[in-house]
Amino acid sequence: MKRLAHIAVLVVVTLLMACGNKEVVRDTEPIYTPRYAKGFAVERDKATGEMLLCIKNPWQGAEDVLYYTPLDSEKPVQRVVTMSSSYVAMLDAVGCTERIVGISGCRFISTPSACKAIEEGKIAEVGYDSAFDFERIKSLGADMVLLYGIAGEAKILTNKFDELGIPYIYIGDYLENDPLGKAEWVVALSYLCGVEEKGKEFFAGVEERYNALRNEQHCSAYKPRVMLNTPYRDTWFMPPMGSYIVRLIEDADGEYIYPQNTTTTSKPISLEEALVLASRADFWLNLGQINSLDELKAAAPRFVGVDAVKFARVYNNTKRTNPSRGSDFWESGSVRPDLILKDLVQILHHEAKTEELYYYKKLE
Fold it and tell me: 55, 125, 149, 262: which could join 59 in a potential S-S bond, CB 3.0 to 4.6 Å?
């Protein structure tokens, strides 16, 4: 079977106002149906018997966009270029770090096996944003580029990859609101690499540990209220209910301080409203690049008197940050939500205990 002469059959379901719905679909049967992730599935084409990785709506605002990528167990992906650090963590989780030949933003990577390969010159920097080195990617002999899309299809990239004959695929893990849904994308990448049993085994362990933590009865008799974030240019952005970080807080038996945001995007609020919310919160989490209470007081002096600050219940998810400010919370944390949840349970309910936190640190 020919392996990805071009990444995929792109199927876009288009609404034509004059003609109604026009669809181009493949008649498939399921092979792997995710339990939590909404953005992918593994299927088999009933007509050809071909196994396919189906990627669904892989960027914000996408509707009815499908990529079908053929999977060949005899010729799995061997040379990978990744455009996101979370993909590095996924590949590492299934023992495929050695297949990475290029990374966008090498200096931000935290995964030890990848850092070692970068130091040894086995993984090349391929640029980022508007400065991708297409010729370098071509020279690396990449047989798959793992892309992410933010607000739409990255036409500048994909047109050039098409021109150079470089296969690519979109990975939409960042769109998953369920922490286990984000982690389940490790299975998608394991199918690409022909090590799907490793992917399933890894995810099953994460799922078991996460659900055990979520379902246990916490010692606290109340749900502590949690404030999030810090101001950006005099505006405070509060994530919506149902978002990734709010789901983690709720699964740790905490109460998000701003349930009013029932949209699907972060909502800007004034500093005055943020101060009212912060004054009601028991804990304050995820403060960007702030690393101490003194830095917090300098950045948000009006918030010095809130209880979370007075009683030093302020924690940031920056414990595992490298010298270039690359965050392992968003790298390995993408496939280890069980460790994030363990941190949050420890913070919100067992603060008096001394077990060391993994991704979070208390601001002193």
Answer: 149
How far apart (Å, rounded) are the C-alpha atoms in residues 128 and 82? Answer: 11
Shared-domain flag, residues 112 and 181: yes
Which residues in the chain show pLDDT less than 70?
A: 1-24, 217-220, 351-354
**Domain count of the fold of the chain:** 2
Judge if 95 and 204 occupy the same domain: yes
pLDDT in tens, 48-78: 999 999 999 999 888 888 889 999 988 999 9
CA gap 162, 157 in Å, rounded:
9
Tokens encoding 20: 């109604």
Q: For residue 269, what are the domain limits?
A: 218-362
Torsion of CA 181, 361, 291, 175, to 10 degrees: 0
Task: Give the residue from 325, 312, 320 showing the smallest Cα distance to 357.
Answer: 320
Collect all residues with Cβ–Cβ distance below 8 Å to 252 and sequence separation of at least 6.
213, 214, 341, 344, 345, 347, 348, 349
Predicted TM-score of the model (pTM)? 0.91
3 state SS of 343 = helix
* Structure token pair of residue 363: 């601001």
Kind plus residue range of the DSSP H or E element containing 197: helix 196-215
Given this model, what pLDDT does residue 274 score? 95
Beta strands in 197-313 (DSSP E): 225-228, 236-238, 255-256, 267-269, 283-285
Q: Summarize pLDDT for 109-152 with one digit per residue, the tens.
A: 999 999 999 999 999 999 987 788 999 999 999 999 999 887 77
> Which tokens is 309 given?
């600050």
Same domain, 298 and 178: no
Phi-psi region of 57 (alpha: psi -120 to 50; beta: other; left: phi over 0): left
3-class DSSP string for 219-238: CCCCCCEEEECCCECCEEEE
Nearest to 213 by CA among 347, 81, 305: 347
Q: Which of 182, 208, 234 is the last residue of a domain?
A: 208
